[in-house]
TrEMBL record:
Protein name: Histone deacetylase family protein
Annotated source species: Taklimakanibacter albus
Lineage: Bacteria, Pseudomonadati, Pseudomonadota, Alphaproteobacteria, Hyphomicrobiales
Length: 343
């Protein structure tokens, strides 16, 4: 099993993020990598490193203004006297893109308010380098699929599925799954994305919301009481040409494997109807019962069942790591999922 991984991903090492207005210890930290690599080793993975990628590749799914902002953020933020250690918004560009146009400021404080969606994406001096390495990992995996591989695991960290074309949010800076899908699409492949992370993949949804050529399907905890709160509802089915090409399957907190499999069957039927040539699996392991986010109650062995159901589609699979946070079972959940997906 080819596993793409770049050690530069370790450079992003934040200590905290905001929960209920309070600074809390950050679960999206480099030790995740060691837990996941241990799973890869047990699954018999062979590591390959990606080549760095430039903004021309990132701009396949990200706005040029956003990339310019991220390239210069750390240096510009710290040119301000008395700025906080991490750039953080104290204003948000409400109403952008949907209700009315908003202006785009030159001020870095204003731009942080424009491009940073929430208090869950701390930005340090090497954050952007780590995010780029994570994106390069997904892009390299996509190229391997184009060379004829039928199964590649992209160990991407930081994750990506909450990042929209011009917004960082929820530990995510670059949308790795969307980038991989778009690279495959540009090469002429019909692609669907199945997001099994416990959180709705709102960034991925946003990037493809108006399009019929890439199907997006997400199974996740009901946003009525779970991050990202404003997206992930069943009514979000796509817009314009994209109508009918986004499927959200929200489930109650605490959902266990039987009810999960019913939703998964619906998801896989939709994917089957779309008839992709390659399926991108946005693989969040935070559906595990002992994940610190406590969204679902999926046991370690259940991951093999879930992987097996997906494998029954008999499609080439590009598996992109999304969430899944330090817990005793994190590595074992990955081993079990990979085993099922390769069955
Ligand atoms: Zn998640």
């Amino acid at each position: 099993m080819i596993t793409v991984f770049d050690d530069m991903q370790r450079l992003h090492n934040p200590s905290s993020f905001l929960v209920a207005g309070k600074s809390q210890p950050m679960p999206e930290r480099p030790e995740r990598i060691d837990m996941l690599l241990e799973g890869v080793r047990r699954a018999g993975g062979r590591l390959v490193a990606p080549k760095p990628i430039g903004n021309e590749t990132l701009s396949l799914v990200h706005d040029a203004r956003y990339l310019a902002f991220m390239d210069t953020l750390w240096e510009r933020w710290h040119r301000q006297p008395d700025a906080a250690e991490y750039p953080a918004p104290n204003i948000h560009a409400l109403g952008r893109s949907s209700l009315a146009p908003v202006g785009y400021p030159d001020s870095v404080v204003g731009q942080v308010g424009y491009h940073v969606g929430d208090g869950s994406c701390p930005f340090m001096d090497k954050t952007w380098d780590a995010a780029r390495a994570s994106a390069a990992t997904a892009a390299h995996a996509a190229r391997l699929m184009l060379q004829g591989e039928r199964f590649v695991y992209a160990l991407c960290r930081p994750p990506g599925h909450h990042a929209a074309s011009d917004v960082a949010a929820g530990f995510c800076y670059i949308n790795n799954s969307a980038l991989a899908a778009e690279i495959l699409h540009r090469a002429g492949k019909r692609v669907a994305i199945l997001d099994i992370d416990v959180h709705h993949g709102n960034g991925t949804e946003a990037i493809f919301y108006d399009r019929a050529d890439i199907l997006t399907v997400s199974i996740h905890a009901d946003p009525k009481r779970f991050y990202p709160f404003f997206w992930g509802y069943a009514e979000e089915t796509g817009r314009g040409a994209g109508e009918g090409y986004n499927l959200n399957l929200p489930l109650p907190r605490g959902t266990a494997i039987d009810d999960y499999r019913c939703a998964l069957a619906k998801a896989l039927r939709r994917v089957g109807d779309f008839a992709p040539e390659i399926l991108v699996v946005a693989a969040g392991l935070d559906i595990a019962v002992d994940d610190p986010f406590k969204g679902f109650a999926i046991a370690t062995d259940d991951f093999t069942t879930i992987g097996g159901d997906i494998a029954d589609l008999k499609l080439p699979l590009l598996v992109v790591q999304e969430g899944g946070y330090p817990s005793p079972s994190l590595g074992a959940s990955l081993v079990a999922l990979l085993e099922g997906l390769r069955s």
